[in-house]
Specification:
270 residues, mainly alpha, Cd81 Antigen, Extracellular Domain, Chain: A, 9 helices, glycoprotein
Length: 270
């Protein structure tokens, strides 16, 4: 009897693992809910929720998708990990670890494929940017994203300013009635430190000038090349971020599996 009592006492769920996993996931759960809420609010403001068919109307990328997808994944993972740890629910804990493992595997696969097929990735990036250049005026969120990218990387278009010929408002055809004809967005303009207010008309007619004259007013390097340069200059930081995320995922999987083992060990002694 004493041996049986000792055996029962020896199997127990680690409170440290349980509540650490709970605290770790409740943060992700709340962040996921916040991202999801922001995404749905943005769609409601743009009228997407009242007309779901408009999701496919945009020719370019809608940045709200990032909030919806990332928020949804974080919400599901956070819920499974948080409730699974708190209630010692092995099904939710297994779901959490398998889902997290699947995401880790997809990230690893994407990283390997990106390295092996980097030329193909570069072509797809060109295609992606050019599609978004075409849809620049179609969505305010996309417009803000492109402006941010061009300002941050000091670039203009995928390969250069002439890529803006793809956009109906900026192309240089004689039949184009737009005032922005042969121009570029203000985010392509070289900033004057003395200016406190952004001149949104600084890119008007700038592509009517020669290559050397353009350089005085706008960035002439493409965003693909500038992004590649930025990656090379910040390779250690970018690699460190990805390694850190991978270690967090592995750590979360290990904690969940450890808690599952503890719960099974306790149940086996009942």
């Amino acid at each position: 009897m004493s041996r049986k009592h000792h055996h029962l006492k020896g199997a127990e769920v680690s409170c440290c693992v349980k509540y650490f996993l709970f605290g770790f996931n409740i943060i992700f759960w709340l962040l996921g809910a916040a991202f999801l809420g922001i995404g749905l609010w943005a769609w409601a403001e743009k009228g997407v929720l009242s007309n779901l068919s408009s999701i496919t109307d945009l020719g370019g990328f809608d940045p709200v998708w990032l909030f919806i997808v990332v928020g949804g994944v974080m919400f599901i993972l956070g819920f499974a990990g948080c409730i699974g740890a708190l209630r010692e629910n092995t099904f939710l804990l297994k779901f959490f670890s398998v889902f997290l493992g699947l995401i880790f595997f997809l990230e690893l696969t994407a990283g390997i494929l990106a390295f092996v097929f980097k030329d193909w990735i570069k072509d797809q990036l060109n295609f992606f940017i050019n599609n978004n250049v075409k849809a620049y005026r179609d969505d305010i969120d996309l417009q803000n994203l492109i402006d941010f990218a061009q300002e941050y990387w000091s670039c203009c278009g995928a390969h250069g300013p002439d890529d803006w010929n793809l956009n109906i408002y900026f192309n240089c055809t004689e039949l184009n009635p737009s005032r922005e004809r042969c121009g570029v967005p203000f985010s392509c303009c070289v900033k004057d430190p003395a200016e406190d207010v952004i001149n949104t008309q600084c890119g008007y007619d700038v592509r009517l000038q020669g290559e050397l004259d353009r350089q005085k007013y706008i960035y002439t390097k493409g965003c693909v090349g500038q992004f590649e340069k930025w990656l090379q200059d910040n390779l250690i930081i970018v690699a460190g971020i990805f390694v850190g995320i991978a270690l967090l995922q592995i750590f979360g999987i290990c904690l969940a599996q450890n808690l599952v083992s503890d719960v099974k060990a306790v149940k086996a002694n009942w």
